[in-house]
Amino acid sequence: MTAPMTGSATASLAGHMIASLAASLAGSVTAGALLAARARRLATCLIIAALIIAALAGCSTSARPPLTGPQTPGTRANTASTAWPIPVVLRFGGQAVTATLTDTPPSRQLAAMLPLTLHLTDAWGQAKAGPLPHPLDGGTPVHDPIPGEIYFWPSSQMIAVYYDDLGQAVPDPGLIRLGVITTGLDRLAEAGDRITVRVSQTPGGRA
């Protein structure tokens, strides 16, 4: 029969158990801290590796020479190296009208838009006119348009081809002269009230 433990023995045993438990907990905490530290180091290494790979990829891309090749038919002409005046052709309904653009800043801006499709109306009874996709800047205004010439109307951002003179002066800000029709003005005048015109440079006008 086992003798009952004294109070001092019980206290001693409890002390040993508490010490053992504390050591075990301390070990667990230490192991967890080590694992966390290793995880942080691994994450740091992965981040550094990713940054190095990205930097190398960027160097490879920047060092690659630009792609070059012949211009396609739809490529817009370099107007800075084009001989002026530029010959152009206006095509509509199986008809062709030829013209030349003058050597002025607004005419160069128009040439940079070519080829261009225009939707023209004949609301004035003296010109075929329609909006441009972009406005033109500069130029000397005129107030008395001449039949057979091409103009830009800044107040409405419209291009107009005059085919008749009704004796009407154009109010301010006037018109900006862009060019002149060389052949086929009568065909354009008789084309109807609404026409779709494709304007492009003729082969001799390309740089």
Automatic annotation (TrEMBL):
Domain Cyclophilin-like per the UniProt entry, residue ranges: 90-199
Keyword Transmembrane tagged: yes
Domain of life (superkingdom): Bacteria
Keywords recorded for this protein, A-Z: Membrane, Transmembrane, Transmembrane helix
Coiled coil: none
Gene3D superfamilies, A to Z: 2.40.100.20
Transmembrane portions of the chain: 13-35, 42-63
InterPro entries tied to this protein: Cyclophilin-like (IPR041183), Cyclophilin-like_dom_sf (IPR029000)
Descriptive protein name: Cyclophilin-like domain-containing protein
Taxonomic source organism: Nonomuraea thailandensis
